[in-house]
Amino acid sequence: MIEITDSLDPEVWDEFVYEHPHGNIFQTSSMANVYRQAKNYVPLSLAAIDPGNGEVLAILQASIISELSGIAGSFTGRSVIIGGPLVKDGKRGNEALSLLLKEYNSSVKSKVVYSQMRNIRDTSEIKETILSYGYEYDQHLDFLIDLDRDEAEIWSDISKSRRKGVNRAEKSGIIIQKVKNDAELQASYDLIHQTYLNVKMPVADFSLFKAIYDEFVPKDMADFFIALQNDIPVGARITLNYKDLVYDWYAGSLADVPYVDEALVWKILSENAGKYKVFDFGGAGHPDKPYGVREFKRRFGGEQVNYGRYKKVHGKVRGKMAEVGYGVYRGLK
Fold first, then answer.
1. Residue pLDDT, tens place only, 155-197
2. Which terminus of the chain is more solvent-facing, meaning fewer CB atoms within 10 Å of its CB: N or C?
3. How many domains does the chain have?
4. Is there a single domain that holds both residue 89 and residue 163?
5. Alpha-carbon gap, residue 62 to 31, rounded angstroms
6. What's the Cα-to-Cα distance from 202 to each of 199, 214, 327, rounded to whole Å?
């Protein structure tokens, strides 16, 4: 017998995530705390356990995101599952995953338009089970950089043009430091927010960034970097750090300040060389669709991977309406 619960003890939850070979920061109880503090975010955390001995067999943590409430929210809401679900190997684990997905689909079907699983690893061993619950798989690229070596080796893998950019940033007086107060945190968010507006993409409310800063920075699980030129904030980049992985979470910069993005990425790579094993560039788009940032990331010398994503539309009519609404949103920006 397997039981599904939404009230697993946080310590037990985190122990399972940490010991799982694919455990990641997005599936921790700390991330659930972040979602509770962020405007428009609600966490949904489900676990499959053996009630006989309390063994955890699988977990799934989603963030339900909606800018509207009530009935309107069901036409705009989405659920995002980053880095999950996490499942024990073997037949018992697959059985647990099936029950977990069944409960999850039932819980969100009237609350969101669609669910999306954003993979940060190869999920081939659970792919068949996920597809059987109405999810569709699509390709999505990423770049991974080996950090388990010295700084000089990482530098040598970076393209000549990117190395020139880093050097020119230094010559132009750009300095990189960690965010140390609320004013710098707000300035970092403003840069990220404007960058997303420029490309007509939605960005989360400041409260999510504040919650990440408060929850993870004291635990050395996040770094907030800000780039300054003549004491003026010109760029920002945020990483989430857990176990062996540094995850490139959000970035933004002034469009008229060259080379700031190169400088920020190099600061992250050089500072974490030999400290962590992998830098995850946070996605590089669909291989068949234009994505300008992909070339920027590729030239830092990482390994290109295609872990893909899963998506399930919970209501076709609401899905069509959401597509129209998003098109209107982008047109107004």
1. 999 999 999 999 999 999 999 999 999 999 999 999 999 999 9
2. N
3. 2
4. no
5. 10
6. 9, 23, 12
